[in-house]
Amino acid sequence: xxxxxxxxxxxxxxxxxxxxxxxxxxxxxxxxxxxxxxxxxxxxxxxxxxxxxxxxxxxxxxxxxxxxxxxxxxxxxxxxxxxxxxxxxxxxxxxxxxxxxxxxxxxxxxxxxxxxxxxxxxxxxxxxxxxxxxxxxxxxxxxxxxxxxxxxxxx
Length: 155
Ligand code: DQA
Prior knowledge:
Layout lengths: L1 E6 L11 H4 L4 H15 L2 E6 L3 H9 L7 E5 L8 H10 L3 E5 L21 E4 L4 H19 L8
Parallel strand pairs: 1-2, 1-3, 3-4, 4-5
Helix pairs in contact: 2-5, 3-4
């Protein structure tokens, strides 16, 4: 099983960006924690980060036939990007929307997600652990889906 992790704008600055809000772990450290958990779960993971909306759209389009699922932290594009939404709709790859912070406890504009209704689920508010929790949850979901409805998911 292959799960792709897609990170949006400014997440490359994790560790130095508003550390009181986003924590001190770098994106590389967050990804290392995901890799460790993925190895224990027997899941293959890949990582992509971009600050550019079109590059994120390209990465989502490339999921088709290449990934069984995705963890998507589209960062600010979560709240604004119809293009990211449309790409996720187009590829139909099951994904979890991930956020380090609890977006529902922040400013009004962050309470709106253009992606959440398409997601299998949303994990928000647990810092770097949000990614690991999302990986665990999506792996379980995909394994159950593969064991249930015929041929929905490759494992
Ligand atoms: C974020 C929340 C977004 O509102 C924000 O724009 C980010 C990070 C999070 O992980 O908490 O860049 O997606």
